[in-house]
Amino acid sequence: MLFFTQTAPDIVILEVGLGGRLDAINIIDADVSIVTTVSMDHMDWLGDTRDAIGFEKAGIYRSEKPAICGDLNPPQTLVDHAQSIGAHLFLRNLDFSIQEKDGVWDWKGRDLQGATVELLDLDMPALPLQNAATAVQAILLSPFSVTEAHIRSGLCSASLTGRMQMLRLNDSECILDVAHNPESAAYLSSALSKLPPKPTHVVLGMLADKDIGEVLRALRLDVEHWHLVSLDTPRGATAKQLQAFFNDCAPNHLDKLTLHSDVPSALTYLSQHLSEQHRVVVAGSFYTVTDALAYLTSP
User: Fold this and answer.
1) Residue intervals in the chain for CATH 3.90.190.20
2) pLDDT digit string, tens, across residues 64-94
3) Is the dihedral of CA 188, 193, 196, 201 positive or negative?
4) Residue-level pLDDT at 126
5) Chain centroid to CA 201: how far?
6) Alpha-helix residue ranges (DSSP H) falling in the chain
7) Which residue intervals of the chain bear CATH 3.40.1190.10?
8) What CATH architecture does domain 2-157 belong to?
9) What's the pLDDT score for residue 252?
10) 215: three-class secondary structure by DSSP
11) pLDDT reported for residue 292
């Protein structure tokens, strides 16, 4: 906060690290507050139901300020809290919506003055479409004048490190994605299904307190081989711990497992055994992707 005060930027975008209501970032009263989705994550801290988690996330909303939720099925606790404090709630498919068609999409919602806005034939973004739609609504509710041309340009150029990030591992296509909960794993699975089919090797490393079993179930991939890695962090799961989940969640893949001591070891092995005909997917945690990025971008 001191840095922002000293540099006085025009716009500050702050990401809540955990939940919302009790997160340190929540000391700031934002002009626009956004809950992208509500999924089962950080349950030790936020609760073990979507209602409990939704209430915690809704804690970032402010009275008389725009409060956006991009979840297609927002918990009633989130809606109730927004209404109880007098926030101006904007919900996906009620206040703003999208329609996909022939490789493009349309957006419809409202601006800060309450006028209806339609953006037609938008190019597909590199980011999840539901998040792009929510971001457009946030932009139009901000106190800044942003033109349609600016929005179109931003949607085309926006990217996020570690989210369907395309790199190369020698001759092989290598995709990095930080998917670490069931919702993000399902998105990854869907995004990969839209790519041309290739024999796929998955490098998976996860934190032990994540819902590993449900992530495996959500990763409905046609995987040629799994490369399980240990993460060298206090919360990190070992490769052997990950292996144990395959007995219940993916028993038909037990003969497709190789255990590695860490991410670099797995990628080194794959670089020596795969060709341009293969695809490598690195997923499961920010830690996993960070280690992969360091390996893939090192001189």
Assistant:
1) 165-297
2) 999 999 999 999 999 999 999 999 999 999 9
3) positive
4) 85
5) 21
6) 2-7, 43-46, 50-57, 76-85, 129-140, 148-157, 182-193, 212-218, 239-249, 263-273, 286-297
7) 2-157
8) 3-Layer(aba) Sandwich (3.40)
9) 85
10) helix
11) 98
| pLDDT-flagged residues of the chain (< 50) | none
Q: 163 and 191 in contact (C-beta within 8 Å)? A: no
- pTM for this predicted structure: 0.80
Pair of tokens at residue 149: 């041309």
C-beta atoms surrounding 2 within 10 Å: 6
- Classified as helix, coil or strand, 226 is strand
Residue located via tokens 């797995």 = 266
* Spatial CA neighbour of 178 closest among 245, 128, 129: 128
What is the architecture, at CATH level 2, of domain 165-297? Alpha-Beta Complex (3.90)
**Strand residues in 19-171 grouped as ranges (E):** 33-35, 66-69, 88-91, 97-101, 104-110, 116-123, 165-169
Read off the tokens for 150: 């600016």
Q: How far apart are CA 202 and CA 101, in angstroms?
A: 31
